[in-house]
Amino acid sequence: MAAAFAHHILVHSKPSCSVFFISSSKNKNGFNTLLPFIHRRHKSSQTTLAAATDSLLQLGGVQISKQDVVKDEPTNNVPDLIFTKLGLQLHRRDNHPLGILKNAIYEYFDTNYNNQFQKFDDLCPIVTTKMNFDDVLVPADHVSRSYNDTYYVDADTVLRCHTSAHQANLLREGYANFLVTGDVYRRDSIDSTHYPVFHQMEGVRVFNPSDWNASGMDGTLYAAQELKACLEGLACHLFGAVEMRWVDTYFPFTNPSFELEIYFQEKWLEVLGCGVMEQEILKRGGKTDNVAWAFGLGLERLAMVLFDIPDIRLFWSTDKRFTSQFSKGQLGIKFKPFSKYPPCYKDMSFWINDSFTENNLCEIVRGVAGDLAEEVQLIDNFTNKKGMTSHCYRITYRSMERSLTDEEINELQWNVRDQVQSQLNVELR
To answer: Rounded to an integer, what distance in angstroms lies between the CA atom of residue 328 and that of residue 35?
Structure first.
C-alpha cells in the first residue's frame, strides 16, 4: 500500500518515473479486448531474446524458470524482455545509484529509530492478485487490474505493481515496523522517465494504544504527526536543509493522506506519498486495536534528481562510463554525461481500432528495439468523415553507448511496423 502512494503520484505528475496503481493510459474497453493481442504477442516474442530461453532464476528463495513466468496461455502478457530483468535487483548493488539511495534511507531509519525497522529487499516479485490488489483495497473494477496496465503471469498471478503487495503478509507475520524495497513492473509509456521495471520502497510503522494514550491525542492524529516528523527528517537527510510543504490528497488506502514536496533546484518536487493506514487493512493483518502510518517512494525518481541522471534507461547500463562514476556510500555524486549519440526519428501513422491502447504499442516497440527505444510520442491524430481515427506516433531511437547505423534503425522500424499491423490489427497509412 505505501509504495502505492509513489505510483499514484507519478502517474499524475509527469515528467517523473513511475510509481503506484493509477494508470496514465486507461483501458476503455476492459480486459477481454486485449486477450487476443496478449496471446498473439506472446507467441511472436518467443524468439525475440534467445539468451533468455532456458534461464533459471533464484527469486526470494524460490527457483523460477522462464516457463514459470512467460507462459503460452491467453492470460499471460509477460514478454521475454521483462523476464530478462527479473533477478537483476539493482537496488541490492551497493555501488549502484539505487543501492546507494536505499542504503542512505536505511541509515536514516537505523539512526533515528534505533534499528527498530525490519528490512526486506529480496521478496519474490511474483505475487497473487489478492496480494497485489485485494489486500490493499483496490476495487475489483479498478483500471490498474487491467491487462493493459499490469503484467499477468496467469489470471491469478502477476508481477507486482508495487512493493505494497507484501504488506498484509508482513503484518500478519507480526512485523510492526518495516521497510520493503524491490523491483516492480508496469506496462507503461516510453520516455526518459518511464520504464516497465522500476524500484520502490515503502515503510510501515504500527502503534499500540499505549503509544498515543499519554499524548492526549487520538491514534490517528498521533500517527499523522509522527509520520510527518519522520519524513521531514528523511527529506533533510537526503536533500539537506530544504523548504518543505505538505499537500492534503486522497489515496484509497490511507485516511488522512498527504504528499510531501520540497523546494529543490528552484522548483517544487514531489518526494513521496503517505498517510494513516485505513483500519480495514490493519484488521486484515490481524491488528484490530492499532493505528499505523505508511509511506511510499520511487527510487528512480529521487535518484534521477540526486545524481543528475537524465534518462531512466541509464540505471540499467553496464557501460563502465556509467557504472564507474558511483561508489558505495557516496550519495548525490553528480553524473557526468559521456558522449551523447544522435537520435533518429521515425514516424508511423495508422487507423486505430476500438481495442487499441498506447501501452500495447509501447510493448511492441520495446519488444523489437529494447532500450534503443528512447521515446514514443503521439504527434498527430484526427478523425475523418467516416468516423475513422488516425494516430501518428514519432519513435525516437537512440543508443546510450554508440551511434546507430541507418541500416539497423530502418530494420527496427520495419519490424515495428510489421508487428504493429499484425498484432494490433490496425491499418497502416
So the answer is: 45
Helix (H) or strand (E) holding 411: helix 406-424
Q: Pick the closest to residue 125 from 174, 90, 176, 74 (CA basis).
A: 90
Going by C-alpha positions, the residue among 22, 45, 98, 15 that lies closest to residue 375 is 15
CA pseudo-torsion sign 362, 368, 374, 378: negative
Ramachandran angles phi, psi of 313, nearest 5°: -65, -25
Question: Who's near 36: CB < 8 A, 6+ residues apart?
Answer: none
Q: Would you state the CATH architecture of domain 61-324? A: 2-Layer Sandwich (3.30)
* CATH pick for 344-428 out of 3.30.43.10, 3.30.70.380, 3.40.50.1240, 3.10.50.40: 3.30.70.380
Q: Give tens-digit pLDDT for 305-347.
A: 999 999 999 999 999 999 999 999 999 899 999 888 999 999 9
Using the 8-state DSSP alphabet, how is residue 412 labeled? H
* DSSP letter string, 316-354: G---HHHHTT--TT-TTPPP---PPPPPEEEEEEEE--T
Torsion angle of alpha carbons 319, 14, 251, 169, nearest 10°? -10
Cell numbers representing residue 362 in the block: 509501447
pLDDT tens column, 54-88? 578 888 888 889 999 999 989 999 999 999 999 99
Location of C-alpha cell 531509519: 109
Sign, CA dihedral 24-155-354-389, equals: positive
Domain ranges of the chain: 61-324, 344-428
d(CA 393, CA 245): 38
Region 28-37: mean pLDDT is 36
Query: Quick one: what percent of the chain has pLDDT higher than 90?
Result: 77
The 3-state secondary structure of 241-292, one letter per residue: CCEEEEEEEEECCEEEEEEEEEEECCEEEEEEEEEEECHHHHHHCCCCCCEE
- Point out which residues pair with 276 in neighbouring strands: 293
Which residue do the cell numbers 562514476 mark? 325
Mean pLDDT calculated for residue range 11-18:
33
Instruction: Give residue-wise pLDDT tens across range 141-153.
Output: 888 999 999 999 9
**Given a cut of 90, is residue 93 above it in pLDDT?**
yes
Distance CA(42)–CA(126), nearest Å, equals 18
